[in-house]
Amino acid sequence: MDLKKIEIVLHASWMRLLGWTLPGPKEATLPPATNSDYRVLVIGYERIGDMIMATSLIRNIARTLPSGKVDVLATPVTASVFEGNPHVDKVLTLNRRSGRSYAGIMKHLRRERYTVMVDGRVNDPPIFTSTPLLMYAGRARFRVGARGDRKPSIYNVSVPEWNRVDHYLEGLKQLAVPFGVDPAAVDWGPGIFLSPEESARAEEKWKEASALISPGNVEAEMSGKKLLVNLSASSPKRRWPDGKFIATLQAARARAPSMPMIVMGLHSEWASVQKVASAINAVPAAPKLRDAFALVGTADLVFTPDTSISHAASAFRKPSLVLLKREHRPYAPYDTPGEVLPWNEDEIEQMPHERVARALVKLLTDFGS
């Protein structure tokens, strides 16, 4: 008995059953948005980096609507990506591990009466997701999603599936087409919006980094370039060793002895953050997510392994050096100056620091002071 095949059959049956009960035509074209009653919800409870990239989809859909805004369904963690975003009205949050959270969101969706619900999660085949249940609860007449050649069921406005070879944003772009967006005619760079308070806290941190390099002459040093280094990664296999960070950053320090640097990482890695920062005369930081975004937004250059920070750098158009497993190139920061340095090893720790040091020195030469 192949349990996986049985699971696939059961999920397919579940999809068909929900598809039969959903309102609206089985296949449709989106009607034009002519008034403020035309409301759109974008479902996107993926990782932080994916949600940052999705801000461009949200912006381009919102600009086709009279209100200029859409609602977003996120997780409690990724919701902060949309703080201050002028293209977002409401941010609904779903804790995927909580039945109570699902019940609350489904009740809320029934009240909201969205015209269109968009499944923005092009990573996951819809047959394995809870999206059909949410769309059933929302009862929207129009449901946009990547269906490929499968028979219509949950989505009645379907777009081609992402081929997983092109950049991730190429898949997201297709979700905007039913709204009348020409993907070739608009900007697809992601966006993060900082509050004045967030920017001010980050600038204070940079002043601290400048004072560490040049005590008593902060203003002079603040006129130069600033390098933000992120240690943390989304999984242990993508976490480069502290010693290799140190060796690489010492080469950068030799190239730019007066450059202010901040080394940041998760609070759980605070010992590593302090160790690396001390070795290169930099300021350590373990900021919360929004403050991490602010450090990226106020930096001039960014060095990071494969994490959400690379996509934050893309949102602020910051020249970056990103270490990325070669097979993950479709998830590289979008249209960002700098270099994506691919690695083929089983784990990133096997990547030689000499190669990274050359790339980082080149980044400083090309974009530094």
Q: In short, what is this structure?
A:
The chain has 369 residues and is an alpha/beta fold. It has helices spanning 3-21, 48-62, 99-112, 131-138, 168-176, 196-213, 218-222, 242-255, 270-279, 289-298, 308-315, 353-367; strands at 40-43, 70-74, 88-93, 116-119, 142-146, 157-159, 227-230, 261-264, 283-285, 301-304, 320-325, 338-343.
Structure description:
- With 369 residues, this protein is of the alpha/beta class.
- It has two domains: 11-185, Glycogen Phosphorylase B (Rossmann fold, 3-Layer(aba) Sandwich); 196-367, Rossmann fold (3-Layer(aba) Sandwich).
- It has twelve helices and twelve strands.
- It has helices at residues 3-21, 48-62, 99-112, 131-138, 168-176, 196-213, 218-222, 242-255, 270-279, 289-298, 308-315, 353-367; strands spanning 40-43, 70-74, 88-93, 116-119, 142-146, 157-159, 227-230, 261-264, 283-285, 301-304, 320-325, 338-343.
- The strands form two sheets. A six-stranded parallel beta sheet has the order 3-2-1-4-5-6, sandwiched between helices. A six-stranded parallel beta sheet has the order 9-8-7-10-11-12, sandwiched between helices.
- Helix 11 (308-315) links the parallel strand 10 (301-304) and strand 11.
- The N and C termini lie far apart (65 Å).
- The mean pLDDT is 90.
Please identify, by name, the CATH architecture of the largest domain.
Answer: 3-Layer(aba) Sandwich
Q: Mean of residue pLDDT?
A: 90
Shape: elongated
Total domains: 2
For this structure, the CATH topology of the largest domain is: Rossmann fold
Provide the succession of SSEs: HEHEEHEHEEHHHEHEHEHEHEEH
Strand content bin: 5-15%
Structural class: alpha/beta
State the CATH superfamily name of the largest domain: Glycogen Phosphorylase B
Helix content: 25-40%
Biggest β-sheet: strands ordered side by side in the sheet: 3-2-1-4-5-6
Top CATH class of the largest domain: Alpha Beta
The total beta strand count reads 12
The major β-sheet equals:
6 strands, parallel
The Cα radius of gyration reads 22 Å
Q: Low-confidence spans: pLDDT under 50, at least 5 residues?
A: none
Number of helices: 12
